[in-house]
Amino acid sequence: MLQEFKKFALKGNVLDLAVAVIIGAAFGKIVTSLVADIIMPLVGLLMGGINFSKLSFTVGNAVVKYGAFIQSILDFLIIAFSIFMVVRIFNRYKKKEEAQAPTVDNKEVLLKEIRDLLKESK
């Protein structure tokens, strides 16, 4: 059972997933800092210095922080857009690489196979 677990844990897919999660978390911190420290202060200036996170009202003893909710929605939208742009750029770069890769014609592949078979038969 230990060998099976070791085989599973060391598979490429599991390691790739672990690396992706770690890089994603680090990228999330970068984007969160971008949103909180750069973009939202500028948005606040454009909107007359409004700080969404401090908007709230009280009902009895409960404090309803709807501003924090609005801030979270804006953070999500900006983060989602940022990730969309990164993926879009990555896909565009990947398509360019695929377009530059030489394509092999099926006829050429068949001719090579025939050539190799003829060499083997001699």
TrEMBL record:
It comes from Rossellomorea pakistanensis. Its main location: membrane. This is Large-conductance mechanosensitive channel. Keywords: Cell membrane, Ion channel, Ion transport, Membrane, Transmembrane, Transmembrane helix, Transport. The chain crosses the membrane at residues 21-46, 66-87. The keyword Cell division does not apply. Channel that opens in response to stretch forces in the membrane lipid bilayer. May participate in the regulation of osmotic pressure changes within the cell. SUPFAM superfamilies: Gated mechanosensitive channel. It is found in: Cell membrane. It is a multi-pass membrane protein. PROSITE patterns: MSCL (PS01327). Belongs to the MscL family. Signal peptide: none annotated. NCBIfam families: mscL, PRK00567.1-4, PRK13955.1. It comes from the Bacteria. Homopentamer.
